[in-house]
Amino acid sequence: MERHRIRIILLALLCSLYEAGVHAQAPPDRWSFAFTPYLWLPSMDGSLRYGPPPPGGAAPVASVDAETLLGALDAVFMGTAEARRGRWSVITDFIYLSLSNDRGGIKSIDFNPGSGPVNLTNTSLNVNTDSKLTGRVWQLAGGYSAIYQPRHTMDIIAGVRYFDLTVSTNWQLSAAVAGPAGAQNFAAAGGISQSEELWDAIVGVRGQVKIGDGNWFVPYHLDAGAGSSKFTWQGVVGLGYSYAKWGDVHLVYRYLSWEQGNNKLVDELKFGGFAAGLTFRF
User: Fold this and answer.
1) What is the CATH number of the domain that holds 199?
2) pLDDT averaged over the chain?
């Protein structure tokens, strides 16, 4: 349902651009640049599927959960850069996160051979589970200005999103878990680690709408795509204030999601929360 709604929104926006673009003004035919350092402290929710389990063995599916990354962060860097000339632009965004989280648990265990996962979500077996996640998110996209008006700008964008993820989970259960074959056991305590690289093609729109005759504006961004992921999407909306001499300040809500499925590591992983940044233009 989530993917269907995003596709409908993107299709409606893209179909409306032709008529709007006919009346668009021409952007300045000169190079301009912008750099935006920002801080994003979202909540995190998802599940990691370690596996596939070896023959005669077992592999866990672990949940990861954090109300905010502020208390979980070990290291962070975030920044966006843009180059623009005329109607064309190139934008890149980079996020580095290293965090530790102890709010998750073991959701289920896959045995091999087995008739299906053994669910632990509604049991009292989970005593303590902590996960460590290190990830780099890099996005590169080209844009074309379909709307360039004093009160509204909108770019059509297309590009790639790369997600390099290394995760490890250590668990403590109150007892070992027996598999359906009888001879298999999932240890009461242990640890596992795994890495994954996701390359996804994305398309979307980004821009801003000016509020009244002052310097306030509403920035927005929406993209969706697939590739290594079954589906990934991102949405951003917020409020900004423009300073003519140097750039902008903004506060936005950002949501970023991946779904792999098919017994891959990132069963689902979602980040959502407020971000604040400064945009320097030159």
Assistant:
1) 2.40.128.90
2) 86
